[in-house]
Amino acid sequence: MQLEYGTGILDVPIDRNRLLAILQPKETKGIEAIGEKVEMSLETPIGSPPLSEILKGKKSALILTVNFTRPSPRALIKPIADLCRRMKLNVTILIARGRHRSMTPEEIKNHLGDDLVNQYPVLEHDPFDEAIHREIGRTSRDVPIRVNKALFENDVILGTGIIEPSYLCGFSGGRKLLVPGISHYKSIDLNHYLLLEKGATPGLLDGNPLSEDSEEAARRLPYHWITYSVVGAEDQVVEVISGDPFKAHRYACEKSRAIYTCQRKKADIVISSPGGYPYDCDLVQGKKGLIPAMETVKPKGAILLLADCREGWGAESTFREWLTGLSPEEVMRRVKDREAFSLGAHGAYLFAKPLVEMGVKVILMTNPEMAKDLKGSRVEAVTSFEKGMEIAEKHTNKKASITVLKKSRRLIIV
Fold first, then answer.
1. Please, which residues have CB within 8 angstroms of residue 333's CB and are 6 or more apart in sequence?
2. CA 128/CA 353 separation, integer angstroms
3. 34-260 topology per CATH
4. Which residues, listed in sequence order, are joined to residue 46 by a DSSP beta bridge?
5. Cα-Cα end-to-end distance for the chain
6. Which residue has the higher pLDDT, 278 or 298?
7. Which of 340, 281, 289 is nearest to 315 (CA)?
8. In what order do the strands lie in the sheet with 380-382?
9. Is 354 within 8 Å of 362 (Cβ atoms)?
10. I need a surface site. Which of 104, 131, 235, 373 has the fewest CB within 10 A?
11. For every residue of 136-154, which 3-state class applies, written as one string?
């Protein structure tokens, strides 16, 4: 069987007699002439007048978009930027980085393309720069609405990116471009703290505390339009949807749900591949493959997570300190401290949770440096698939049933 890992493909030996299920996204055909689809969506939006009407009489537009951990948005941005230019608006592009690492100038150019980078100012949000944020209040869950002040310095705010299931917030896109996309790090942390409440799961919007908090904040902020692509398993654009930031977003999420929903098949051993680079570029991204694995592994089973993590941990030191220095039980206790919570803490929590709550062994196949960093922790880090399976079978048994998750970071398990 072939599974994605880093920038390559792993050929892994799996006993077909023990294989219970392979869960993966449905096959979908990508659309051709994406630019034409975008142009059409600008004139036939969902829940909104055409973009040309929204831009009338305006002087400046801020186009928000995603960073390198998502497929390139340039095919979506260019028709919008060109329309703005024809209507004499000044355009600025702001990359909604959230708490991901910053991109290099070369990465930004590769991500957005020479045309956009050369024609328009391109900024990248910095969640730690105190001077660039403005706070307008707090949500009903007491999360500060503190965002990049560029939001208030432009006449029209336009969001672009992709729709995919989100491991905590239900689905990506829409309100997430603002919170966490261009929010202060403390706002991001406190929004993510809501993962401890019921409902923080892929594919769920109503009743999801993170999604509801993000949407509440977004509705109180300037936000006028979105253009989003629904993507398939290979990041191909399946559909382009534009319009009202909330109505169009909901419509797009249902299109995405149809691609990524899988029926639960619980096994003793779950092998989870997030989808290769950039979806396993670091441990922050790679850990997302744990969420559907926890939904498909039996109690006292084993999860083998395949994440290359060539860029290391991908988060502040708390992630490493908690995962390597605290017992899983202590992680589960300390993560409940709201003031001490951070994205690093939440990463450690996701590794501790299956062990403490289900008695599940978590094994990480990764690069030698990451394996060395995790030595002595309760996460078994290995550098080969064979060694990972050996540990999984020792924890369960050599005839243990197996479920394989492909493109696991996006799967919705029901």
1. none
2. 29
3. Rossmann fold (3.40.50)
4. 243
5. 24
6. 298
7. 281
8. 19-23, 402-406, 267-273, 297-306, 361-365, 380-382
9. yes
10. 131
11. EEECCCCCEEEEEHHHHCC
> Tokens in use for 342?
């951070």
- Work out the percent of the chain whose per-residue pLDDT is above 90: 95
pLDDT in tens, 132-181: 999 999 999 999 999 999 999 999 999 999 999 999 999 999 999 999 99
The percentage of residues in the chain with a pLDDT greater than 70, rounded to a whole number, is 100
User: Which among 36, 75, 46, 82 has a CA at the least distance from the CA of 61?
Assistant: 82
Q: Distance between alpha carbon 385 and the CA centroid of its chain, in Å?
A: 25
Give start-end residues of each CATH 3.40.50.11440 domain in the chain: 34-260
Pick the CATH number of 2-25+263-413 from 1.10.3720.10, 3.40.30.10, 3.90.226.30, 3.40.50.10440: 3.90.226.30
Question: Looking at the chain, which residues constitute the CATH 3.90.226.30 domain(s)?
Answer: 2-25+263-413
Give the burial string for 82-108 (b: 16+ CB within 10 Å, else e): ebbeeeebebbbbbbbbbbbebeeeeb
The pTM of the full predicted model, rounded to 2 decimals, is 0.91
